[in-house]
Write a structure and sequence with these properties.
CATH topology of the largest domain: Rossmann fold
Family: Belongs to the class-I aminoacyl-tRNA synthetase family.
Protein name: Arginyl-tRNA synthetase
Number of domains: 3
Strand content: 5-15%
GO cellular component, one term: cytoplasm
Bound molecules: arginine
Radius of gyration: 26 Å
CATH class of the largest domain: Alpha Beta
Distance between the termini: 20 Å
Largest sheet: 5 strands, parallel
Number of helices: 18
Organism: Hasllibacter halocynthiae
Mean pLDDT: 95
Number of strands: 14
GO biological process, one term: arginyl-tRNA aminoacylation
């Protein structure tokens, strides 16, 4: 039951046809003094707000509509709010889910090079990617979580050489010690030892990465290995596909410039080896089997890579598929293992998701553990815990809280459509604040209101991959 979504589609249908209405929004007003909701529909459509006001005034879900400049403010009817709260309380953590009606999505995230353990930055990408995946699932999409293992190039050789150093006692590295311990010997000749040691080191490193992802609550559906694509013929097949479609020059140069990139991109080096980009072309081609919607969550250091990847997906799919690149800024902080050990996965997720995704962050371990209103993890989790306590008090949900609860299905839909899980976190902070205000009144919050708020909280936490406190329902 998406109350705001339903009102919004009525609004859209009241506007003149043939306009681009993508920018039309219906949002919860920051305070309820001017109405509960506000829309820019008349502004976007360039129509007289009075027309919308007249139409909305006839809607049984709306008590009052008024124009404010070009904006229109609305006040919901008590019956509509009560109804939404009842459904929320009944649905619990499923409040706001959509049945499966979205297209399947393939999302790649957290794809660190094989390395013994993730960095804070990759953990941040994991928090963002997995929360986005869950938010899309909540909105009805089937989601495939993908990890691209860059084991085909120089980094994997470097890893193997580092392990060799530990193996021979030339260096020490506690992170590599367990990998070196059972590494194959392979003899003295690098041509003999490099390949088997590399394979061993990649396996060992990926075991560590997997177990950290698991501890974080991330379950990948598929690991795509660059080397396997290159050596197993998938890269050659992808290049042949592009060639057959007429997008390859001189046998190995992809005409990315035809698809909005600044220049053509080589897929093969002088010495005959495939380029890093060629591996990615094959990986995206694989992901296009069964998906027309691809999302890559990459570090902001990949910004320059955007055009050529997008060009490849357009060319491979004949324009039928889209690639959405979401860039996540670096996190300066201790390794993922230390963050997870100190904070646990739930607080770590909330702390990593709090800053805007593209902005670099300094991970503040002490701040994430702090009991402070300014700590989003504490604010959300402590409010969630309080909502789990059954009280015998009798006050109904105050209007701002009722409104936040009723808006959740629409907020969840917007977060999925905008591919921004931080919208969910903002909503949870809002629910937390308004719930605490309601519970702190002398009359407290009655059980129906408490259950509806708890439902909203539990549903939002599930989108972020944060486990609810035990009693939240
Ligand atoms: N399909 C891709 N190229 N994914 C990005 C890989 C990111 C790279 N391995 C890193 O650690 O930064």
């Amino acid at each position: 039951m998406d109350l705001l979504g339903a009102i919004l589609s009525d609004l859209r249908s009241a506007l003149p046809e043939g306009l681009n209405l993508d920018a039309v929004v219906l949002r919860k007003a920051p305070t309820t003094s001017q109405g509960d909701l506000a829309t820019n529909a008349a502004l976007v459509a360039g129509t007289d707000p009075a027309v919308l006001v007249r139409r909305l005034s006839k809607d049984f879900r709306i008590d009052r509509a008024s124009a404010a400049g070009g904006f229109v403010n609305l006040r919901l009817s008590k019956a509509a709010l009560d109804d939404a709260l009842k459904v929320a309380a009944d649905m619990g953590p499923d409040w706001g889910t959509a049945g499966d009606r979205g297209e399947p999505v393939s999302i790649e995230f957290a794809s660190a090079y094989p390395t013994p353990g993730l960095s804070a930055s990759h953990l941040r990408q994991a928090a963002f990617g997995d929360a986005l995946a869950r938010t899309l699932e909540f909105a009805g999409h089937a989601v495939t979580r993908e990890y691209y293992v860059g084991d085909g190039g120089a980094q994997a050789d470097t890893l193997a050489r580092a392990v060799r150093g530990v193996q021979e006692g030339r260096t020490t590295d506690p992170a590599l010690a367990p990998i070196a311990a059972d590494a194959p010997d392979g003899g003295d000749d690098e041509d003999g030892w490099l390949a088997p040691l590399r394979a061993h080191a990649v396996r060992g490193a990926m075991r560590m990465v997997r177990s950290e992802l698991e501890a974080f609550g991330v379950r990948m559906d598929r690991f795509i290995f660059e080397r396997a694509l290159m050596e197993g013929g998938a890269v050659a097949a992808a290049v042949a596909d592009l060639d057959a479609a007429g997008h390859v020059r001189d046998g190995y140069i992809f005409a990315a410039d035809r698809f909005g990139d600044e220049r053509a991109r080589p897929m093969r080096l002088e010495d005959g080896r495939w380029t890093y980009f060629a591996g990615d072309v094959a990986a995206h081609r694989l992901r296009l089997e069964g998906h027309r919607t691809l999302i890559d969550v990459l570090g902001t250091d990949h910004a320059a890579y955007r055009r050529r990847l997008t060009a490849a997906v357009t060319a491979l799919s004949g324009g039928a598929a889209t690639l959405d690149l979401r860039l996540v800024g670096p996190a300066d902080g201790p390794p993922a293992a230390e963050i997870l050990e100190t904070l646990g996965p739930d607080i770590a997720r909330l702390a990593l998701l709090a800053p805007r995704a593209e902005v670099p962050m300094t991970f503040d371990m002490a701040g994430a553990r702090g009991v402070a209103w300014g700590n989003p993890a504490w604010r959300v989790l402590s409010a969630a815990a309080r909502l789990g306590e059954v009280g015998a008090n009798g006050g109904g949900a105050p209007r701002p809280l009722a409104l936040a609860i009723a808006s959740w299905p629409h907020v969840a839909r917007c977060a999925a459509a905008e591919r921004n899980p931080r919208i969910v976190l903002s909503h949870l902070l809002d629910i937390a604040e308004r719930s605490i205000a309601a519970l702190d009144r002398p009359e407290g919050l009655d059980d129906a209101g408490r259950r509806a708020a708890a439902a909203s909280m539990a549903a939002g936490l599930s989108c972020l991959g944060v486990r609810p406190p035990p009693d939240l329902g």
